[in-house]
């Protein structure tokens, strides 16, 4: 009896399916879903004002007008950067603070004649500090993403359409991708630490010229150890 | 020349990490949803001081909800997102996500001009969920991500300079001899005063 009912229902569905889809189409005014992304050439056209936007529609010209207003006010990327907040208040923000114990004294304050010796090494030091801070944010965000994803999957897989076994496979993929990420992080961390050490030795060479022969051993090394510890993975 | 090559090598090394590392692809979900990646292209208009990358996407939405995501964002780049509706009388709900499609980080609705926008900074990627109560809806999504800012870093160098020979004790005495002298005088006066009282 059950199978007869099922066959009847399926026949009804097959017979009326064109009518059902037409009804759905009528409900959307006969429109179908469409996503049109502008390509590189079109973006270049907007940039160079070579695209004819007169027939582009009010929404597009309005959207581009609002973006133009936002961008023309800005004086620099730094202005926009400082004027914005993180998307998630809990997400990692680049942290450049140095512990007072690890601060390094110098013979040559910025702007002095001796600074030409330090310039290149200090630029490299700044670059490494910025890169390490970003690298740390990528690590923290990835860790956060994985932990949240696993917690979410563990909590909902029992009641979700995806069955427990399928979730276990998905979870294994997440864990494996994260393990691979950790290895990449460690390799890049080691590389950047090498560059940091080199920059500090270069500063030390300059310090030696201006009266402090053991600068790296006395101060640079402490800063290096501080940075090594600050950006070391903790899982 | 040698220094330049060294810097380029370092830059290549760093960039290669951000390009090749497998990190977050999009907000996490267990649902089988269709998520569209919005691709960013170089955008450097002459009248603007900040270069960046731009995506402009025109969408006709017939479902309740559509999902988009953007990747390749730097924590140092300011990011701008807007949604502009074709029909101002049909408000569109916009939600921004990062970790998963359940936790809404920011949200809003298109205003009387049919426009909604937000600015923020984030690392690597984020998701945009668009909900249309009144369908079909036609709208334009604009995503702009600026060039990396170079925020001023607090100096790792202490204000105190080391003197010749680097003796910090000598430096301390040199700088604070007057305070030390005053302290000693007060101490002597105090001792004399106590002795006299006795």
3D architecture notes:
Chain A is mainly alpha-helical and 235 residues long. Helix content of chain A is 69%, strand content 2%. Chain A is built from seven helices and one strand. Chain A has helices at residues 2-27, 40-47, 58-73, 77-83, 115-156, 164-209, 215-230, and one strand at residues 34-37. The longest helix of chain A is centred in the C-terminal third of the chain and has 46 residues, at 164-209. Residues 12-27 of chain A have low confidence and may be disordered. Chain B is an alpha+beta fold and 198 residues long. Chain B has two helices and ten strands; from the N terminus they run H-E-E-E-E-E-E-E-E-E-E-H. Chain B has helices spanning 2-20, 168-197, and strands at 35-37, 41-43, 52-61, 65-73, 79-85, 92-97, 106-109, 115-120, 124-132, 137-146. In chain B, the strands form two sheets. In chain B, strands 1-4-9-6-7 form a five-stranded mixed sheet, with no helix packed on it. Chain B is elongated. The termini of chain B are far apart. Classes of the chains: A mainly alpha (235), B alpha+beta (198). Chains A and B meet through strand 1, helix 2, helix 3, helix 4 and helix 5 of A and helix 1, strand 2, strand 3, strand 5 and strand 8 of B.
């Amino acid at each position: 009896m059950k199978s007869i009912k099922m066959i009847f229902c399926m026949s009804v569905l097959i017979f009326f399916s064109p009518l059902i889809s037409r009804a759905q189409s009528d409900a959307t005014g006969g429109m179908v879903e469409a996503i049109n992304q502008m390509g590189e050439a079109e973006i270049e056209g907007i940039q160079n004002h070579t695209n004819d936007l007169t027939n582009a529609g009010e929404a597009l010209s309005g959207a581009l007008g609002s973006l133009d207003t936002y961008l023309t006010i800005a004086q620099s990327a730094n202005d926009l950067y400082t004027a914005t907040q993180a998307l998630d208040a809990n997400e990692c923000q680049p942290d450049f603070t140095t512990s007072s114990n690890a601060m390094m004294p110098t013979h040559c304050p910025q702007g002095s004649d001796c600074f030409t010796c330090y310039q290149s090494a200090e630029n490299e030091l700044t670059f490494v500090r910025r890169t390490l801070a970003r690298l740390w944010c990528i690590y923290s965000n990835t860790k956060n993403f994985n932990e949240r994803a696993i917690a979410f999957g563990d909590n909902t897989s029992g009641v979700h359409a995806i069955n427990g076994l399928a979730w276990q496979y998905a979870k294994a993929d997440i864990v494996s991708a994260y393990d691979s990420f950790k290895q990449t992080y460690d390799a890049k961390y080691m590389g950047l630490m090498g560059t940091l050490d080199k920059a500090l030795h270069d500063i030390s060479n300059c310090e030696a010229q201006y009266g402090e022969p053991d600068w790296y051993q006395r101060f640079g090394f402490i800063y290096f150890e501080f940075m090594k510890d600050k950006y070391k993975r903790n899982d | 020349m040698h220094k330049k090559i060294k810097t380029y090598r370092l830059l290549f090394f760093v960039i290669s990490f951000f390009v090749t590392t497998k990190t977050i692809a999009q907000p996490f979900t267990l649902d089988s949803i269709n998520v569209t990646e919005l691709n960013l292209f170089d955008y450097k208009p002459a009248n603007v001081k900040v270069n960046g990358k731009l995506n402009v996407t025109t969408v006709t939405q017939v479902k309740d909800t559509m999902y988009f995501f953007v990747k390749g964002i730097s924590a140092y780049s300011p990011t701008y997102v807007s949604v502009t509706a074709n029909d101002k009388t049909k408000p569109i709900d916009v939600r921004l996500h990062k970790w998963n499609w359940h936790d809404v980080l920011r949200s809003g609705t298109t205003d009387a001009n049919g426009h909604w926008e937000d600015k923020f900074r984030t690392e690597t990627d984020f998701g945009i969920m668009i909900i249309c109560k009144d369908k079909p809806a036609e709208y334009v999504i604009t995503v702009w991500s600026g060039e990396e800012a170079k925020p001023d870093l607090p100096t790792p160098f202490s204000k105190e300079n080391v003197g010749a020979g680097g003796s910090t004790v000598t430096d301390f005495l040199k700088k604070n001899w007057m305070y030390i002298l005053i302290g000693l005088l007060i101490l002597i006066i105090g001792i004399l005063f106590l002795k006299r009282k006795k």
